[in-house]
Amino acid sequence: NAGVTQTPKFRILKIGQSMTLQCTQDMNHNYMYWYRQDPGMGLKLIYYSVGAGITDKGEVPNGYNVSRSTTEDFPLRLELAAPSQTSVYFCASSPRGTQLNEKLFFGSGTQLSVL
Amino acid sequence: DQQVKQNSPSLSVQEGRISILNCDYTNSMFDYFLWYKKYPAEGPTFLISISSIKDKNEDGRFTVFLNKSAKHLSLHIVPSQPGDSAVYFCAAVSEGGSEKLVFGKGTKLTVNP
User: Fold this and answer.
1) Which tens digit of pLDDT belongs to each residue from B11-60?
2) A42 and B42: CB-CB below 8 Å?
3) Contacts A90 to B, Cβ<8 Å
4) Is there a contact between A89 and A109 (Cβ–Cβ < 8 Å)?
5) What is the pLDDT of residue B97?
6) Sequence-separated (6 or more) residues with CB below 8 Å from residue A62
């Protein structure tokens, strides 16, 4: 059972570079999410999607973009990397979303450093 | 402004004893609460949840208690095992609050053999 798969696991970027964090799930979940976790802090929602073609902002969307062209994939794009984006990024999915009290299934994370 | 607070960054207990992890919240609109467990280099995994219409939910060694008037919930682990050593996150969501699950900062539990 693959579940939620994130790539890469680690990445170092230079300031101003761009990259895409990949996330794919094989559970046919409608809802997908991107969170970031800064050291010593809780997870904060960046963007989420309730289905293919539909995305919405979370708590900390600035500096990021997302797209959802298929049910399985939900990539996160950083256009102009900044040191403040150094964090661990988690992708998650859910069958029907937190509003219906569904739990989230998380990937193993991508550790990103911007230097 | 932290809406979900876990004021103890760490907790250390002996194997076989009870672990009690605490969580306070400020938003009275929260109506569903979850606990996630996270091992190093892994993503969080769901542990247990409770709806605001209940004051207790049990699943094996894990029990979550909710005190709505105090805006407080706690996670009890009995008996604690070394494999329970992890970071535990409390999270909350409100009906009509979109998909924004709000997490606390986490408590690192260490269970000593």
Assistant:
1) 999 999 999 999 999 999 899 999 999 999 999 999 999 999 999 999 99
2) no
3) 43-44
4) yes
5) 65
6) none
